[in-house]
């Protein structure tokens, strides 16, 4: 898949999440559910969920593959594959520095996922703190 096609798909998924009404407020449409499912599938894998957690909780909110390897009994290519899946799903951005690739969670994706599962106040503001869930998302992953 070419980078431009991948970036368009990621942008579409993030758009679906951006204005997704919290599930507790009203049922999600078939169209939005279809768009959101790739992101949810990406974090449904235990290794990828742990990788996302490690990146989010790492000092500075970013981590390189070399920081993540010691936490798994998996090869570097396998870890890199899982990180690519998270990146392609729109959950992580990446930046190459020298020979290593550093990953950082996309704040808009984290806020959108959080707002999707918000419960409690279903009539007021249910957006994650500091985020506007219906604001257009800008920028495409690297």
Give an account of the 3D structure:
The protein is mainly alpha-helical. The chain has helices at 3-18, 30-43, 46-57, 65-68, 76-88, 107-116; strands at residues 62-64, 92-97, 100-105. The chain has a 3-stranded antiparallel β-sheet with strand order 1-3-2. The longest helix has 16 residues, at 3-18.
Which structural traits does this protein have?
single chain, 142 residues, mainly alpha, three-stranded antiparallel beta sheet, 6 helices, 3 strands, elongated
Brief account:
The protein has 142 residues and is mostly helical. The chain contains six helices and three strands.
Oligomer: single chain
Q: What is the averaged pLDDT score? A: 79
Helix content: 40-55%
| Low-pLDDT residue intervals, each spanning 5 or more residues | 122-142
Which helices and strands appear, and what pairs or packs with what?
Elements: H1 3-18, H2 30-43, H3 46-57, E1 62-64, H4 65-68, H5 76-88, E2 92-97, E3 100-105, H6 107-116
Antiparallel strand pairs: 1-3, 2-3
Helix pairs in contact: 1-2, 3-5
